[in-house]
Amino acid sequence: MNDWSPESWKTKAHAQEVKYEDTAALDAAVARLRELPPLVTSWEIEKLKGLLADAQLGKRFLLQGGDCAETVADCRSSVIASKLKILLQMSLVLVHGAHKPVIRVGRFAGQYAKPRSKATETKGDVELPSYFGDLVNRPEFTAQARRADPNLLLSGYQHAALTLNFIRSLSAGGFADVHHPEYWDLSFFKTAGVPEALREQYEQTARRLADALRFMEALGERTVEDLTRVDFFTSHEGLNLPYESAQTRTVPQWAGWYDLSTHFPWIGERTRALDGAHVEFFRGLKNPVGVKIGPQASPDEVVRLVETLNPTDEPGKMALITRMGSARVGTALPPIIEAVKRSGRRVLWISDPMHGNTVQTSSGFKTRNFDHVLHEVEQTFEMHDALGTNLGGVHFELTGEDVTECLGGAAGITEKDLDRNYASVCDPRLNYRQALEMSFRIARWMERRKNGR
């Protein structure tokens, strides 16, 4: 790694590069970011890496979820708590189905930058830069809002810090204490048209886990409060390299460089070029690193990515997040799994069933179908089983709010419902009910699979 530094990426081709007009202001913002305290710590990163190493061996399962693109306007206690709550509820259900611990990773406290398929957007006769997330510009379709503003890098850091502070306070204060039934609001089951059997199954799962925790307490010396304390880790796409590199530093406890803006950064499908700036930056990090893999990726390319990003084959370091689409996963994924398996490299396989299943309705809404999302997850499980590998996690775009952005699910959202509460500034998310139902469907599938059915 003698040829690497936190800024060596500047010598490479930079996909999705943001064009800042005021370079002096950019330099000032980056310099200030370098001085600010880290958002996460190296020992938290190393702890997560150890947990991911267990997941690579099938001893744990990863649940990763959150907004497509966070907004600073949603840095509110109610919004943050609802995201934390749905992730915890989903993980509770998955623990019950998988019979193994679940690693909880949120797409929050930094998911403020988004790649776009086109650099500009046109409305009528007006063409402006696309919205690249609140770390870069604003969603309003005006020249001022769409101008890349370096000060938004500092705003993103500040709102990420506020979000992390509240998440840590909730976790430390007992918010995540699953044995207290009053912490779980199940009232929506009774009003959302969800079958009574599903509500009863969730309540039964919660009761069983609570009983198991109390039984463990009776056998040992630890209290239920100790046993049920939950760790949450953060993740985001490391898209904006000035922001990421400014928070990358060495620490006294460990050798090497850590991106301390998040625990688990990933490289997107659009920025994973082997000779590109993002792979160059990520190859020098001690963080666990994910890479999104779409249906256009070749098996050889994926193996070379794994070798480049984790040359020493360190356990827990490398994750491949596949996003194929339900119609293509059956043909596109197996050759990639087989190639990585032949290489002997250790990776954590994660299924992202959201991005490959995005469609546009006749009325212009981007949406996803619940059944297509579920079908991709189930197919991915089946292919890993058939090839002797392990699917170790799932990655969802979701929210704890009652939005209407994805079709289907027990709540029965149809195309005519989309404009009722379509709140996403980018891609559609599963709402609270759909996300929880998704966890039940996956957990039931995992339990049947474990029992040979």
Automatic annotation (TrEMBL):
Protein name, UniProt field: Phospho-2-dehydro-3-deoxyheptonate aldolase
Catalysis performed (reactions): D-erythrose 4-phosphate + phosphoenolpyruvate + H2O = 7-phospho-2-dehydro-3-deoxy-D-arabino-heptonate + phosphate
This protein's UniProt keywords: Amino-acid biosynthesis, Aromatic amino acid biosynthesis, Transferase
Matches recorded under InterPro entries: Aldolase_TIM, DAHP_synth_2
Enzymatic class: transferase
EC number: 2.5.1.54
Pathway: Metabolic intermediate biosynthesis; chorismate biosynthesis; chorismate from D-erythrose 4-phosphate and phosphoenolpyruvate: step 1/7
Family: Belongs to the class-II DAHP synthase family.
Pfam families referenced in this protein's UniProt entry, alphabetically: DAHP_synth_2
Record has Amino-acid biosynthesis as a keyword: yes
